[in-house]
Amino acid sequence: MPDNRIAIGSDHAGRELKEQVKTLLEGLGFETVDFGTDDDCSVDYPDYGEKVSQAVSEGRYQRGILICGTGLGMSIVANKFPGVRATLCHDEYTARMSREHNDSNILVLGGRVLEKETALKIVRVWLETSFEGGRHERRLKKISTIEQRIINGL
Ligand code: RB5
């Protein structure tokens, strides 16, 4: 059954955009669960990236959104977690591809590099686009195999 809850988190550099994304999501009927940060005090993005990524990795949420200044740090953190396919998207095209080809389950945004309107368009496309399966399923299975090998000590 589709989960209409979205786990969301940011550091200080992503907080303003996170609030705008939450407003959009709630307007679209999604429930947002905010893992912080809650103010503009400087924090360390791995602390917030870990919370959301762990929640998705453990299957507590089907989808998550992470925002830092560039989106780079959050991407690095999120993709350490088994089963997480975190995709840093810059425009509607990368947002669509991240779902059709990569079955992205965490959308990563850069709060300091995206215009608000572009960021909100990315979120909409990411939510509305389905995974294509087929040859892309085979490629994702290869990623899971690599992940399992690493977990098992190669
Ligand atoms: C914070 O200054 C910044 O380094 C962080 O938000 C992010 O861009 C890291 O990748």
Structure report:
The chain is of the alpha/beta class and 154 residues long. The protein has a single domain (5-151), classed as Sugar-phosphate isomerase, RpiB/LacA/LacB (Ribose 5-phosphate Isomerase B, Chain: A), CATH 3.40.1400. Helices cover 47% and strands 16% of the residues. A five-stranded parallel β-sheet has the order 2-1-3-5-4, with helices on both faces. Helix 1 (15-27) links the parallel strand 1 and strand 2. Helix 1 crosses helix 5 and helix 2 (45-57) crosses helix 3. The longest helix is centred in the last third of the chain and has 17 residues, at 135-151. The radius of gyration is 15 Å and the shape is globular. The mean pLDDT is 97. D-ribose (RB5) is lined by residues 11, 13, 45, 68-70, 72-73.
